[in-house]
Amino acid sequence: MFDHLLRQLKDRWLAPFSRLLGARVSPFSISLLAFVAGVGATLAAYRGQNTTALVAWLINRTLDGLDGTHARVHNRQSDVGGYLDIMFDFIVYAAIPSALAVASHQPALLVATVFLLSTFFVNAASQMYLAAILEQRARGAGARGELTTITMPPALIAGAETVIFYSLFLAIPSWRLVLFWTMGVLVCVNVVQRLWWARWRL
Predict the structure, then answer these.
(1) Which is the most buried residue in 4, 78, 146, 187, by most CB within 10 A?
(2) Do 144 and 151 form a contact (C-beta atoms < 8 A)?
(3) Does position 153 have pLDDT exceeding 80, yes or no?
């Protein structure tokens, strides 16, 4: 919901560190490190090592924010970089709740996870197809002055909210069932928001 505002702040905060790293470090290497941290968070979550998983998740998110900033600071943006970045993100987004559910051996949490991941699937379809239509009509990220590879119309649950929810998944195990259902319902609101947005703007 606040990503379009936070993205500029994030660039301001991370740009000095990006300049310190220098242009020889590729944005893709940062994306890859972020993905490795995300996989580490998943494995730790499966093993019940919640603190380790939370730290690895936050490292994943920090590096995921850094790769785009680094690309912009050193003028190394690329479509393939943006494509791989979102692919890595979605793998981690699916893997962490799946690991938590499988490790729990709780049927109720498994059901909640199926619901949550199903809403992710529909939300991703609504976002990506809408972005493709907007690009086709020359109303995409470039035309709108956005910092992302593709346009991302604001929605209730976006990157910042995902960081918060997943951090809570890992930090407060007893809340997972409620949090999974809550996030899933709010992601459904995203889909409705985009349908409404598309109805009046396409």
Answers:
(1) 187
(2) yes
(3) no
Task: Please report the pLDDT score of residue 75 as a whole number.
Answer: 87
- CATH code for the domain in which residue 182 is found: 1.20.120.1760
The first and second tokens of residue 26, run together, are 């590729």
Tally of domains in the chain: 1
Domain containing residue 47:
3-201
| Confidence band for 148, pLDDT divided at 50, 70 and 90 | low
Check whether 82 has a pLDDT greater than 80.
yes
Rounded to an integer, the average pLDDT of 10-18 is 81
CA angle 188, 167, 56 (to 5 degrees): 125
